[in-house]
Amino acid sequence: MAAAASSTDRPGALEITRKLAEICGRPFARFAGPADEVAGRTARWVAVPGGPHAAAEVLRLAAAHDLTVVPRGAGTKIDWGAAPAQVDIMLDTGRLAGVWHEPEGSSVAEIGAGTPLRAVQATLERTGRRLPVDAPSPGATLGGVLAADEAGPLRHRHGSPCAQLVGVRYLDADGELVSVGLPGTAQFGQAAPSARRGGSPAAGPGGGAAPGGASAVLGGAEVPGLDVARLLCGSQGGLGVLVSATMRVQAVPAGRVWVSRPVWTPLEVHDLVRAVLAARLDPAAVELDLPVPVSLPRRRIPASHPSVAGRPDHPAVTGRPARPTAAGSLVVLLEGGPADVAERADRLTALLGPEAVVNHAAPEWWGRYPFAPGDTALRIEVPINDLHAAVYALRDAAGTPVPVRGSAGIGAVHAALPGSLPPERVASILAAVRGVLLARQGRCVVVSAPAPVRRAVDLWGELPTLPRLRNAKAHLDPHHRLAPGRLPGGL
Q1: How far apart, in whole angstroms, are the C-alpha atoms of residue 260 and residue 269?
Q2: Is the pLDDT of residue 61 over 60?
Q3: Which residues contact 75 (CB under 8 A, 6 or more apart)?
Q4: Are 335 and 341 in contact (CB under 8 A)?
Q5: Which of 278, 299, 322, 374 is least surrounded, with the fewest CB atoms within 10 Å of its CB?
Q6: How far is it, in rounded angstroms, from Cα 57 to Cα 23?
Q7: Distance of CA 365 to CAs 272, 326, 333, Å?
Q8: Which of the pair, 472 or 62, is modelled with greater confidence?
């Protein structure tokens, strides 16, 4: 941090600050402080432009002075992924906010990148609609959710946030405002840079792009450049700066229930998930929570003790051994009309057995990550038939149960390793798990980690799309001004 602070004393630093203040307004441009970090890398300046054109001017200023730019939304995932090689200007999108072009009955809405997701949902809810996106990070902005391609339980039915993307406005590395989207939406405009330059965009770490061309097909219509727009999903600001996104919206379901069942082993989860999916119940989400069991001291309780009096099923009374405490829960969300949801819930409880319970509220852990700040957070993606093998492999490699939570219905879960583990131990665990997943077309990615671990391990593992991602970076940001080093392969 001292090095970053001293860099602002170099000749020209005050001039850059003055120009940023002219662009953004004096209260919205400053030298960076200790909290203005990206995965441990401190910025030199913070700029908060008041609109798309001001944001474009910031990028043009950066290009003129050969400065790097890293976008920031609410900062909820600012420590995810690799540290950038350099952060000169942190471009805060907080003033690029609002929900526009969303008349009642419309199936799409244009949303500013800096708008908190919960504010989007509150605005849409007033007209009985919602965005089918439920990213777990509290306070996250829509731009941050898209930049990380962060998805929650609803991804089971609706896919990732990228799948809800209809169009975008974004700024390229030269500060040019680019609009792409469906004809007839607010976003439809000029082709994306790779289309103009004849490039072949590549699938980024968030996926979702249509490979090999400069257009995509959506709803039967060819959309110039939309594949490039989808490259922004998961790119951590390394390919462009999102200004706004046009997203699909839908009616708020009239009925919602959560059907839960305790589970004891990953293999049991495998069998249950297969049964649920085969039953064609159209679940909105199928979520798993496997916490680390809490070890409690064992002691013999006499049958006359007040804690078991009146409980004829207690082992102290029956003399039979107790069933082990449930290791976790499998919870299925059903949405739709009230009568339809009730009928499907009855079928589901019959399928899951007498231990299934119907609730009208989500469990406390729903839509939350199993990791905490300071942990090494992992994301595992594997075909659902092999999810149990991945969890067992992680347990075996770690030598102890590891908390796992996520979308069992699509084989995408998160896990947490203690932040106190030395980097070489984390590296050995990753190698073992990735070895198991490789034969199963799965992946294990380090989402976030303490700095020593982040520096010592391969965060992404094998990435077949890396050549296409490198090609996309070369076309969209040839001078590596946007979040350099944040993407796989040091891009």
Answers
A1: 12
A2: yes
A3: 144
A4: yes
A5: 299
A6: 7
A7: 20, 15, 14
A8: 62
pLDDT digits (tens, 9 = 90+) for 233-290: 888 999 999 999 999 999 999 999 999 999 999 999 999 999 999 999 999 999 999 9
**What integer pLDDT is reported at residue 11 of this predicted model?**
59
- pLDDT bin (cut points 50, 70, 90) of residue 9 is low
- Is residue 95 within 8 Å of 50, Cβ to Cβ? yes
Mean pLDDT of the chain: 83
Beta bridge partners, 110, equal 100, 246
**Amino acid occupying residue 307:** S
**HSE-up of 56 (CA within 13 Å, CB side)?**
12
Residue 242 near residue 197 (C-beta atoms within 8 A)? no
Span 133-182, pLDDT tens digits: 999 998 999 999 999 999 999 999 999 998 898 889 999 999 999 988 75
Q: 219-226 — which CB contacts under 8 Å span 24+ positions? A: 219/182, 221/182, 221/183, 223/167, 223/180, 223/181, 223/182, 224/180, 224/191, 224/192, 224/195, 225/178, 225/180, 225/191, 225/192, 225/194, 225/195, 226/165, 226/167, 226/180, 226/181, 226/182, 226/192
Kindly state the tokens that stand for 367.
Answer: 């839509």
